[in-house]
Specification:
Pfam family, one: ABM
CATH class: Alpha Beta
Helix content: 25-40%
Largest sheet: 4 strands, antiparallel
GO molecular function: monooxygenase activity
Order of helices and strands: EHEEHHHE
Shape: globular
Strand content: 25-35%
Keywords: Monooxygenase, Oxidoreductase
InterPro entries: ABM_dom, Dimeric_a/b-barrel, Heme-degrading_MO
Protein name: Antibiotic biosynthesis monooxygenase
Number of strands: 4
CATH architecture: 2-Layer Sandwich
Length: about 100
């Protein structure tokens, strides 16, 4: 299993707005080969810290997704988000290979 975390910080007063965006996400990734699960995590002590958690069968499945047209289309939409503060956020990406269950 391969896990990817994309963590970003938004102003605390915008956290609920960002969460609502993810509630209505396209779901395109759900159809990607090797995709297992998506979770949106909110830090309990820092409400503006949001992490996208994705689980994949393998690193290769994730890399195929990142190179796909669906991935590019989703991330182009993010750049066009009307709230410029949110559109300009650059996440921190962490990748993990699961080595034990």
């Amino acid at each position: 299993m391969y896990i990817v975390h994309s963590t970003f910080a938004v102003p605390d007063d915008k956290a609920e707005e960002v969460i609502s965006i993810y509630h209505s996400r396209s779901g395109l990734v759900d159809e990607a080969d090797g995709f297992q699960r998506f979770l949106l995590l909110q830090n309990e002590k820092k409400p503006g810290e949001i992490t996208v958690h994705m689980e994949w069968d393998t690193k290769e499945h994730f890399m195929t997704w990142v190179q796909s047209e669906d991935y590019k289309r989703i991330h182009e939409l993010e750049k066009k988000y009307p709230d410029k503060d949110l559109a300009s956020i650059i996440p921190s990406i962490d990748k993990y290979k699961v080595v034990a269950y």
